[in-house]
Amino acid sequence: MRPFELTAPATVDAALATPGTFLAGGTTLVDLMKLNVLTPQHVLDINELPLRGIDTSAGLRVGALERMADIAAHPGVYPAISRALLLSASQQLRNMASIGGNLLQRTRCTYFRDVAMPCNKREPGSGCPAVNGANRMHAIFGASEHCVATHASDVAVALVALDAEIRLVSEDGERVVALRDFYRQPGDTPDVENDLRPGELITEVHVPRKDWAAHSTYVKVRDRQSYEFALCSAAVALDVQDGRIVDARVAAGGVATVPWRLPAVEESLRGKPVGLASFEEAASKAVDTAELLAGNAFKASLLKRTIVRALLELTEGGLR
């Protein structure tokens, strides 16, 4: 780790007025600084800023500095969000990591994290060895010839499924962005991962109220049971009335360069009876646009099975 200057602004205005890299829980930033993937000269510890609070009275509002563990344990948090948080990391990391930091975490692609290797995310124009290299963990959606790295966040998948928004502030003012639109596919600029502007800070996450989002879940498939990133995951929510699906939300993780919403699956579910046949038909729509690599072709069938499993878990648990 290279030397850096650390300051702790006491107000949001002071933080926005001071050039530097924001530090919250540090569970991603510090790791990448140790690897020299990131080498900020000035780090701003923002943990004392008034960006906390969890409100479930009208949907969900969460301050960006709320810890993952506290959000997961809070009554009234939609199950898909709570479950995604619980499956994200160890208890110790969940106690430290902030929701804002989680949404901005960088990819776990081994080429990105190894400064001895080329990586277009880290050094634009240097190449993407994962395209023809070790790509078992990599994306089948949203990739380009310049980058095939997957997005790392579990909870972002659940939040995208439930139409979450984030509030951002800068010295230029405040804006609200749909989380689904916040993330950017790599295209020919894989180093630009999201729509966060210079000097901008996430202050709040908002999930609009959907009473039927209480009927939601998150399923994560990985190589080992704990402390591992997703090979494939699915966040689903269903509105079921009289045995038929009125509305649905479905998003996938571990398979795309961004949290991947699946509108074709949602559309296929609407109006169908609850049951395995409906779920399998809808899940088959999930991979229509998949682009498979030599090492990750298995993810196409795994994604379909993961979606079906999530839907079965949700409905066999009592939703009819």
- Reported by name, the CATH topology of the largest domain is Uridine Diphospho-n-acetylenolpyruvylglucosamine Reductase, domain 3
What is the rounded distance between the termini?
A: 54 Å
Q: What share of the residues does DSSP label as strand, in percent?
A: 15-25%
Q: Residue share in helices?
A: 25-40%
Description:
This protein is an alpha+beta fold and 320 residues long. Helices cover 27% and strands 20% of the residues. It has 3 domains: 5-47, Uridine Diphospho-n-acetylenolpyruvylglucosamine Reductase, domain 2, CATH 3.30.43; 54-105 and 154-207, 2-Layer Sandwich (Uridine Diphospho-n-acetylenolpyruvylglucosamine Reductase, domain 3), CATH 3.30.465.10; 211-316, Enolase-like, domain 1, CATH 3.30.390.50. Strands 4-5-8-6-7 form a 5-stranded antiparallel sheet. Strands 9-10-11-12 form a 4-stranded antiparallel sheet, sandwiched between helices. The mean pLDDT is 96.
Topology:
Blueprint: E1 5-7, H1 12-17, E2 21-23, H2 29-34, E3 42-45, E4 54-55, E5 60-63, H3 68-73, H4 79-86, H5 91-96, H6 99-103, H7 110-113, H8 155-161, E6 165-170, E7 173-178, H9 179-182, E8 201-207, E9 216-221, E10 232-241, E11 244-253, E12 260-261, H10 263-269, H11 276-284, H12 298-316
Parallel strand pairs: 1-3, 2-3
Antiparallel strand pairs: 4-5, 5-8, 6-7, 6-8, 9-10, 10-11, 11-12
Pfam family, one: FAD_binding_5
GO molecular function: FAD binding; oxidoreductase activity
Protein name: Xanthine dehydrogenase YagS FAD-binding subunit
